[in-house]
Amino acid sequence: MTRPPTAAQRRVIDAADPVTGRLRGTESQLAALVKRELAFRHPRPPHDHFLTPAGHRIREETANAAESAPEAAEPAREPARESSGVFTARVGGEEGIDSGPSRIREVHSAWQGLLELRRMTNPHGVVDRPCAWERTHLVQAAALALEAAGHRPADAPTDSEGYRVRATPQPEAVAVRGPDAEALRECAATLEQAGWQVGEHTEPRTGARYLLASPRRT
C-alpha cells in the first residue's frame, strides 16, 4: 500500500492551483510527488509540475476535511470556499456566495487557468476541447464554462431562475437545467463552444426540458 505523503508534501499539494493543479515546491519535493504518482512533469517547457488525478483527490480530501471541521473563529454564514480557500464553480442552488466584482475576477482567472491546463495537457496543445481534469470533474467543469460565459446560476435551493448542473448516472455526462427554453439554448451554445457535446432531452414524467452534456473527445 502506498505510504501517505509527508506533511511537507501535503503542504505542496494543498497549495496547488485549485483548477490547473500547477505545483510549486523544491525539486526534491516535486520529484518525490512524481515518484508517488501524485504529480507529473510536463514534457514541454517550462516543464512545470501538475497534480495527477490521485494528487487532486488528496487535495480535495484535505479541502473537504477543512470544510467539515468546526469553525469557531469563522462567521456562521461564511461561504465554504472562503473557509477552505478553494475556488468552486457555482453549480446552481448554493447560498451565501458572493456574485460581485471579486467573484467575477475569480471566475475569469479560473477559466483562463483551465484553458492553460488544456493547452499544457491536451495532445498538440489544443484548447477547444476538455482535458483529463474536466473529465474527472464533470459538474465543476461544465459549471465553470457556464459561469465564465456570464450565465446566471440559481441563487438558492428554492430559486427557480438560473442554471443548475448536476451529475447523472451516465458516464461522462452532466444534466443542465434552466428556467426556460431560451436559457437552455443559450447554455447549450456556451457548452458547445467550450468543447462539449450537448443534446436536449425531456423528462418522461414531468415533461421538463434539460440538457445532457459530455466532454467532446475530437
UniProtKB/TrEMBL annotation:
It comes from the Bacteria. Residues 41-104, 198-218 are annotated as: Disordered. Residues 63-73 have a biased composition (Low complexity). Residues 41-50 have a biased composition (Basic and acidic residues). This is Uncharacterized protein. It comes from Streptomyces liliifuscus.
